[in-house]
Predict the structure of Ribonuclease J.
Amino acid sequence: MSKKKRLIYLPLGGAGEVGMNAYVYGYGPEGAERLILVDLGVTFPDMDTSPGVDLILPDMSWLIERRDRLEAIFISHAHEDHVGAVSRFPDLLDVPVYARAFTANIARGKLKEAGLDERIVRTVSPWPEMTEAGPFSVGFVPISHSIPETSALVIDTPEGRLVHSGDFKIDHTPLVGEPFDEAVWEEIGKSGVRALMCDSTNVFSPHAGRSEAELEPQIEELFKGAKGMVVATTFASNVARVKTLALAGERTGRSICLLGRAMRRMIEASVETGVLRDFPKVVSPEEAQGIARESLMLLVTGSQGERRAASAQLARGKYNGLEMKEGDLFLFSSKTIPGNERGVIRIMNQFSEMGVDVVDENAGLYHVSGHANRPDLAKMHALVDPQMIIPMHGEHRMLREHVKLIKEGRREGIVAVNGTMVDLSGNAPSVAGFVETGRTYVDGSVQIGALDGIVRDRIRMALNGHVVVTLILDEANEPLGEPWCEVMGLPETGRSRAALVEVLENDLGQFLARAGAKTLADDDKLEQEMKRIVRKVAQDEIGKKPEVTVITSRLA
Amino acid sequence: MSKKKRLIYLPLGGAGEVGMNAYVYGYGPEGAERLILVDLGVTFPDMDTSPGVDLILPDMSWLIERRDRLEAIFISHAHEDHVGAVSRFPDLLDVPVYARAFTANIARGKLKEAGLDERIVRTVSPWPEMTEAGPFSVGFVPISHSIPETSALVIDTPEGRLVHSGDFKIDHTPLVGEPFDEAVWEEIGKSGVRALMCDSTNVFSPHAGRSEAELEPQIEELFKGAKGMVVATTFASNVARVKTLALAGERTGRSICLLGRAMRRMIEASVETGVLRDFPKVVSPEEAQGIARESLMLLVTGSQGERRAASAQLARGKYNGLEMKEGDLFLFSSKTIPGNERGVIRIMNQFSEMGVDVVDENAGLYHVSGHANRPDLAKMHALVDPQMIIPMHGEHRMLREHVKLIKEGRREGIVAVNGTMVDLSGNAPSVAGFVETGRTYVDGSVQIGALDGIVRDRIRMALNGHVVVTLILDEANEPLGEPWCEVMGLPETGRSRAALVEVLENDLGQFLARAGAKTLADDDKLEQEMKRIVRKVAQDEIGKKPEVTVITSRLA
């Protein structure tokens, strides 16, 4: 007897956080569903929880173990939290990766950089073209967001139609890319939609979102009043914004210069794929050096205060031979993502010290969000008119709030965080089980588990400092000389005004002098006791309990 | 010939940052001015720049070296960034510390805790009472802020009157403490004010500030709709807010329980000093456990997401036998200070996972700021009507913006960051020189300089991991066995799939086998070479260059 077939949804990343999107859909008999993956993104580390880490990836083990059941990967748009991990799991790349031209361009670049075969990326045309993948048929429906060619996915299945919103906003004048189209969504909804998986990022924003086009006159007005050089930053991928900024610069009589690798690459990709037209001619940094300040505008990377990006470098001094001066204007045409405030504020103050006027988006004049606010989400729910809605892409509190909104609209919805397998086959979503998920860290050139203890050790050293004790024992297990201590990240002297290492070595020496033969013969015992002594002495002397490494060498 | 006397202002902390306020005023011949200090506060560390540090203090060396010229210390109010360091510089405490009753109570508590003589703190009555201190005569003028008995200081000098605003807002209905009083300020201004030193924190807030009293009905409305337990957090020192919250709890039929040491201590100090009256009777955590959830309200510490405070502990589980459950309400009646977002958001999501409804101040309904916004600053400038204004307490960009506002009002003003000695004797402020300033870290029980390299080493270990190499050499400078490596905070294996320590030890062993007698006899050379090898191998294997400590032991 064959098992009943079912339709499942399983977020492996992005549900319970903003970032590292990775959503699995499956159809078939339980445990033998054919699978597709929507998006494969990264998220970014921070000093508090992941110091030294370069990138954070979703843990894709569940899917890798079942890769023989994977039919295809679909990428909704080219933001790093949707496409950034596409080259990080070669085990998943036996299947085609589908995306629209601009996104495909970015994805191929990543595969090429990683030495992988970029030909697996297949460019698709937008809705109503459909791509077959096992039991699924998938269409890319253009939708407005903050990067070109963003798409929602229509996923037709034997159990009916699904809509995966991806990141979106309702914008009828997005400047670059297709406007939000109610008619298309009504048509898609008309034939009946089983489930909508819906972006939750801005569910706490109570007012309807604003259009990209609103910014143009305000930005131009700002630039008109600028006496010196104008510098503006935004996400390089927000090509519409970059264009708005560049046009405002051009109209106020300035030559445009792009600074920062991501800025140049995004504009190149946009021009190559035809999504960006009428972009002003740009000058190189070398040419820019010869242009009068009041006739120059720089468009730079680093809107989030990233230390190595162009903004931060300009805040510290020269970048590509260019530098900020008193009377210049710097515009953050971007929102600061929570957690990045310190870096952004540092840059603002560095510019202030130079006499540069810094303008940010606080007044709401120079930035609009790329995500649907609460009323816009309700509108999308109504347009698609699905039987059930599963909130995705958001922190837990956002998913939970989104479910409240869904219930206000008298529809079925549940909170499904990463690892929650949801059965969409019934009249309402039901939890079919939980799979283990988590985070993988890209650390230098190595992938490590978030729970491997490696980063925990780094955090401990950062908080507590590190003491290394070296002890040499001879063939008869007698200490050869005194134990040695080296400290890193700790004060040199404490309460007793003697050098901390001397106090430590002295107390360790006394312990060894008293230690019996049995203790001296036992590495574990020695280590344990010496750690205890170091922590106790350090607590007395400097009020801290450091991390301790004991190295016992025995001459054989 | 005696030098001309002058009137100086010298910020040692608080000018160029929000936090650790410490302002020196002096009058007398150049280099022999008699001095007073206004405020002595702390600021708080963060993982990005000061991991493991407990508190940050202004570097008071300049004043300590001149303490024979110090007449007195005046504390404007009891916030940590104004009074928090009062017990940290015993060398400055040969002079009296003047404060109003509530502030004095808090200051005495700090001195007592540090084992210092609390009797140096003298309680003063408010304006028009004046306290003599050398050439200065100082009055505490009640002003509205977000902690009881906040005062601006009127400082009369032989060169005329100064006004030091301290932290303030314009609030005519502050609920606890004295309302802002235009008449008093007009009177103070009438006799002529030479200079106003003025709070800059909210200069970027464009609209007039709102009163504490506006919150009452909104908070009560919120609590009325709550079905389960209500929990609210705010700064414990915001006694007016704590009272508003408690009264709203009482009026909606709830018993009030205070959780967290700071919350209990602040309310005790407020009741003891008479600033807080009609506070509802509170129940202990033990009693609270016996009260039905819908009849209970907790007032808790930890509005900034601090890991050890009551909020964070409730987000992780039980605290004092109490815990949050589905259907409870948690209110952040507070603004999240930039840099604390991650911690606050973590707590919000933990509560969301429990099914607790979290409400924050985003809608502007449940929190008002304690600082004067831009129009309120302009109003204060006009009321005091001084000859010149020096912006204080704020990041560089705030001081700079404040000067713009001052110039709009056609007054003299300059940006004077920490260490800038300003001569106030002339018709306009002029820079008289710069003194060295900085930050001192309280690290465990030790004070260390911010530039000592200790914290830098911790940050490096956190970013790069730490490798310890141990090498033993015999009497003939021949290596005894192989060198040993221990790694902390690094992956165990890398590119070659062999253990990282083995690859390291192998390459170090090969180097030693080839090393000449001269190298083997030279500790510095050995260390340098072995560090180089470790970094190179680690870069090849794991793509990171770790911190390296080399310990060479020579058997003598």
